[in-house]
Amino acid sequence: MEKALADVRILDLTQYEAGTSCTQALGWLGADVVKVEPPRVGDPGRGTARGEPLDATYFITLNNNKRSLTLDLKCEAGRALFLRLLPRFDVVVENFTLGTMEKFGLGYEVLCAAHPGVIYCTVKGFGTTGPWAHIKSYDMVAQAAGGAMAITGTADTIPLKPGPTMGDTGTGIHAALGIMAALWQRQRTGRGQQVELSMQEAVTNFTRVPLIRREVTGDPSPRYGDGATAPTGVFPCAPGGANDHVFIVANTLRMWQALATAIGREDLRDDPRFADLGRRRLDDTGVVRAAIREWTQERTKFEVTDILGRAGVPAGPVMDSGDLFASEHLRARGMLVEIDHPTRGPMTLFGCPIRLSDSPVEIASAPLLGQHTDEVLRAELRLSDDEVASLHASGAI
């Protein structure tokens, strides 16, 4: 079947994760993504956390379904090649430090003059304007500045960083949405435009619902730990390991009654002390949580999830990395995929979480540095073998 974005072509100047996750998502959906990397060194994410010449799992995880083209944008020949390629592509995405593209001589105005229909997406820690625009960012910085850390933890802890990289990949997914909107608008107007993402603002978008609590509690909105209502929260399970826990949500009367029945505590189900949510929340004696904990501790997190799921009570095991990569459910859904990397060999990765009935996603291995340089230049610019060889010799590619 034809891929959903088969006619979309992207020049990907991104590095690390915030921008790279954007172009990966578009590549999953069928866009032709050409990753433009500096010769010899490539995306710095290739070497993250490995200290060896083989590409890091970090890079391979974030760069499926892309081709790699090496171009030295610091030299005139490299910039000239980029501008020659530009009109043949729809989108440019970059997440360099503020002002880098302008230093290359490839700012938005230059690109727009060379290709008025181009969609130019720029991802920055704090945007391109405002008093903080000059501040560099990483995922954890964006999570701090976007409000996520202030609401994570308990009243007794310091602010904690949520584990998921919502500052990076969360921003990337927002960027992909912005690019798709700009492409759709271009179909009507014929004009390109700039799409700008601030990592801080993307994180703020993720925190907007928890921050509603400030209307009741005042500022700052407090940290609620594992849940603000009873008996919602994390409960320990057998055999008692660090991640042998389950998260249970029973915040309606029907769910509470179903939960009490499932754990064999009909006496609590019918107890007038717990007849409404407010009273269950104010369970100062801890009777309800103690009863649930006593029951869950005798069962594994997967057994608890199965029993409560069948009873209509929302529950999920605390899945660690080993659980996720061994999950029969994720494998059956196609979320666990096998690739054969040119240097790393067989690897298991997470696939694409987006499902389109007429456009199945196929996951291809991340490219080696410069793997497609000659192919792209010959196909797009009709360069001869001698011209390509000369560019290699000059260091421009």
Brief digest:
The protein has helices at 20-28, 57-62, 76-85, 100-103, 108-114, 139-145, 169-189, 199-207, 214-217, 253-262, 266-269, 277-281, 287-296, 301-311, 321-325, 328-333, 373-381, 385-394; strands spanning 9-12, 32-37, 66-70, 91-94, 119-124, 193-198, 233-236, 245-248, 315-317, 336-341, 345-350. With 397 residues, the chain is an alpha/beta fold. The strands form three sheets. The chain has a six-stranded parallel beta sheet with strand order 3-2-1-4-5-6, with helices on both faces. A three-stranded antiparallel beta sheet has the order 7-8-9, covered by helices on one side.
The side-by-side strand order for the widest beta sheet comes to 3-2-1-4-5-6
Mean of pLDDT: 93
User: Total number of β-strand segments?
Assistant: 11
- Alpha-carbon Rg, integer: 25 Å
Provide the succession of SSEs: EHEHEHEHHEHHEHHEEHHHHHEHHEEHH
Shape: elongated
Number of helices: 18
Please give the share of residues in helix.
25-40%
What this model shows, in words?
By secondary structure, this protein is α/β, with parallel strands linked by helices. It contains 18 helices and eleven strands. The radius of gyration is 25 Å and the shape is elongated. The chain starts with 8 loop residues before the first strand and ends with a helix.
Topology of this structure?
Elements: E1 9-12, H1 20-28, E2 32-37, H2 57-62, E3 66-70, H3 76-85, E4 91-94, H4 100-103, H5 108-114, E5 119-124, H6 139-145, H7 169-189, E6 193-198, H8 199-207, H9 214-217, E7 233-236, E8 245-248, H10 253-262, H11 266-269, H12 277-281, H13 287-296, H14 301-311, E9 315-317, H15 321-325, H16 328-333, E10 336-341, E11 345-350, H17 373-381, H18 385-394
Parallel strand pairs: 1-2, 1-4, 2-3, 4-5, 5-6
Antiparallel strand pairs: 7-8, 8-9, 10-11
